Structure formats: structure tokens, C-alpha cells
């Protein structure tokens, strides 16, 4: 997966346009690019003054990438339960990042050490699952949580699992992203 600079720009414009349209600032734009009509999974991350302001995404490619970006931009701006809905006065202060995910792949491991050896910091995003508990961190999260123990400890917390849950009890998948940010 590789997106041209022009296509990256279109995806960022699409995400911003979806939010602006919802706020009745401007009409929603559409993109004609063929690659955006293929099914894709994306995350849209909003930051304000360098701080997280919303982040919602899809782990599976189940709808056209264009639609996935629009829906995740709206969800990140208005339905992320960690934040109040974005206001029109905040929109100019927000930076948008779009991450397009590869298909998640199962990771087979027999020990915590083996798991850590199979997950590459700054490269792999991780999905953990146990029963009804599920959580993911994008590869970008390694910047804040640079060690495997930190990364997985916070991932367990995000999944609402006890911090002493053995990692060998989890189903683990990894994926990579191509990400682009507004300048």
C-alpha cells in the first residue's frame, strides 16, 4: 500500500470536509480517485495544541476507504467518548491525521518474550482480544509508550483487562499503517 502525495492530500481534505460539513461550515467534498472507492480501514486522529482531541477508526476493511475516512472523521470529532463534541471555533485549531491500515495478521507466540520479539516498535499496531475485551494501539502510540511492557500494560488497561492478565492468554494481531498529517 502506497498513496501518492496527491491522494494523501485528498484523504486529509476529505476528513476535514466531513467535519466542516457536519458543523454547517461548508458542503462535503467528494473524491473521484479509484483507490478511495476500494474497501479500506482507517483511523482519523485529531490533535489540538499537540494533545489528543479525538481518535476513532476501523480495524477491518468493510466499506470504501472514502466512506470509512468520512465516518471515522465524524466519529473522532463528535462521538469519541473521551471528549466533548468538537465545536466550529475549535476546527481551525485542530490538526488531522489519517492512518490507513493493512489487513491485521494473527501473531502466534508461546511466551511473553516471544510475543515481544514479534512486535516491532514504531512499525506494528497491535490488537489484543480476550473474551469480550478488545483494544488496539496504532504504531504511533510507541512514541508515548516506547517499551513493550509499557505498551502492552496500557493496552490491557484500554481493553479493561486486569494489568496482571498473562499476555499468553490473549489473542494478538498486528498491522501496519500508512499515515499522513496536515501541515
Kindly describe this structure.
There is one protein chain. The chain has 183 residues and is of the alpha+beta class. The longest helix is centred in the first third of the chain and has 18 residues, at 5-22. It has 2 domains: 5-101, Hypothetical protein ph0010, domain 1 (Glycoprotein, Type 4 Pilin, 2-Layer Sandwich); 105-176, 2-Layer Sandwich (Dna Ligase, domain 1). It has 4 helices and 8 strands; from the N terminus they run αββαββαββαββ. The strands form 2 sheets. It has a 4-stranded antiparallel beta sheet, covered by helices on one side. Helix 1 crosses helix 2 (65-78). The protein starts with a helix and ends with a strand. Pfam families: AMMECR1 (PF01871). Residues 1-183 form the AMMECR1 domain. It comes from Reinekea marinisedimentorum. This is AMMECR1 domain-containing protein.
Compact description:
By secondary structure, the protein is of the alpha+beta class.
Overall CATH class of the largest domain: Alpha Beta
How many DSSP-defined strands?
A: 8
* The CATH topology of the largest domain: Glycoprotein, Type 4 Pilin
Q: What structural category arises from helix and sheet content?
A: alpha+beta
Order of SSEs? HEEHEEHEEHEE
Biggest β-sheet: strands ordered side by side in the sheet: 2-1-3-8
Protein name: AMMECR1 domain-containing protein
Organism: Reinekea marinisedimentorum
InterPro entries: AMMECR1, AMMECR1_dom_sf, AMMECR1_domain, AMMECR1_N, AmmeMemoSam_A
Domain AMMECR1: 1-183
Amino acid at each position: 500500500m502506497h498513496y501518492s502525495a496527491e491522494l494523501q492530500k485528498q484523504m486529509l481534505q476529505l476528513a476535514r470536509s466531513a467535519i466542516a460539513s457536519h458543523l454547517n461550515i461548508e458542503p462535503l467534498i467528494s473524491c473521484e480517485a479509484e483507490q478511495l472507492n476500494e474497501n479500506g480501514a482507517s483511523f482519523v486522529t485529531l490533535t489540538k495544541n499537540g494533545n489528543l482531541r479525538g481518535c476513532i477508526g476501523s480495524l477491518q476493511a468493510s466499506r470504501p476507504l472514502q466512506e470509512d475516512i468520512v465516518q471515522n472523521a465524524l466519529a473522532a470529532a463528535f462521538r469519541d467518548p473521551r471528549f466533548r463534541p468538537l465545536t466550529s471555533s475549535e476546527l481551525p485549531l485542530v490538526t488531522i491525521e489519517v492512518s490507513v491500515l493493512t489487513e491485521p495478521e494473527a501473531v502466534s507466540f508461546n511466551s511473553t518474550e516471544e510475543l515481544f520479539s514479534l512486535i516491532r516498535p514504531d512499525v506494528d499496531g497491535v490488537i489484543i482480544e480476550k473474551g469480550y475485551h478488545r483494544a488496539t494501539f496504532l504504531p504511533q502510540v510507541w512514541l508515548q509508550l516506547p517499551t513493550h511492557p509499557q505498551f502492552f500494560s496500557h493496552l490491557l488497561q484500554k481493553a479493561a483487562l486486569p494489568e496482571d492478565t498473562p499476555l499468553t492468554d490473549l489473542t494478538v494481531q498486528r498491522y501496519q499503517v500508512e499515515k499522513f498529517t496536515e501541515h
